[in-house]
Amino acid sequence: MSILARRAAAEVIGTAFLVMAVVGSGVMATRLSPDDVGLQLLQNSLATGAALVALIVALQPVSASFNPVVTLVERALGMLDTRTAAGLVGAQFAGGLAGTIAANLMFGLDAVTVSTQERTGAGLWLGEVIATVGLLLVVFGAVRSGRADRVAFAVGGYIAAAYWFTSSTSFANPAVTLARTVTDSFTGIAPSSVPAFILAQLLGGAAGYVLVRFLYPTLATSAVEADRKVLS
Predict the structure, then answer these.
(1) Contact present, 200 and 129 (Cβ < 8 Å)
(2) The predicted structure's pLDDT at residue 97
(3) pTM score, two decimals?
(4) Is the pLDDT of residue 22 over 80?
(5) Which residues contact 151 (CB under 8 A, 6 or more apart)?
(6) Residues contacting 213, CB < 8 A, separation 6+
(7) What percent of the chain has pLDDT over 90?
(8) Is residue 7 classed exposed, middle or buried when 0-12, 13-18 and 19+ CB atoms within 10 A define those classes?
(9) Mean pLDDT throughout 187-198?
């Protein structure tokens, strides 16, 4: 199997499990705590953050972005070629949709149900820009300073926190955003709300890229050596 195929498979699997964690824990939370939205969000955020740590630790030696914005920034930084980036982004979107369908079925819901939950407004869009900028600083700040072994814990902790400090509850991921349109549950988002969310995420990605290049203009020596060892 080619390196690209292995990396794409890792992205499909990782993104699917990430979305299962997001959607599944959301459904479980509403069933366990039907009258307490704050507790539902706490349960959802903790499950998502913990799943991210585990998935990144497991799949980082192959590929563990699970996020088209992260992959696009990797391409912009010269860490990936265009063909690889395109393959990984496609895998992330496919994995996200598969994860939502699996979560729906696990909890006895229809495999696909279009969400009716509108998420719109300038405050939410700003929240997505900020959430995405922060995510990129966490990911690439760790990687470009030679601390890639800490990315899993940094990302998991950041996302769990960003659920609470951003108005949008930190989607910060186009693949996950699209995947959440096919579940009419706690974590769903109406299709009409998606374009603005993804635009905000891309704007956050562009701003994050600029900040990463400014703060970390060169890779630490240990980061270069680690990158050369990946899949060697």
Answers:
(1) yes
(2) 98
(3) 0.93
(4) yes
(5) 56, 60, 138, 139, 142, 143
(6) 77
(7) 93
(8) buried
(9) 98
Residue 8 is encoded by which pair of tokens?
Answer: 């794409």
Cβ proximity of 90 and 12 under 8 Å = no
pLDDT tens digits for range 91-143: 999 999 999 999 999 999 999 999 999 999 999 999 999 999 999 999 999 99
- DSSP result, 156-211: HHHHHHHHHHSTT-----HHHHHHGGG--STT---GGGHHHHHHHHHHHHHHHHHH
The length of the chain is 232
Of 177, 59, 62, whose CA–CA distance to 169 is shortest? Answer: 177
Q: Interior CA angle at 121 toward 115 and 124, to 5°? A: 80
**CB 73 within 8 Å of CB 205:** yes
Rounded to 5°, the CA angle 23-29-31 comes to: 110
Asked whether 179 and 19 are in contact (CB, 8 A), the reply is: yes
- In angstroms, rounded to a whole number, what is the distance separating the alpha carbons of residues 74 and 133? 14
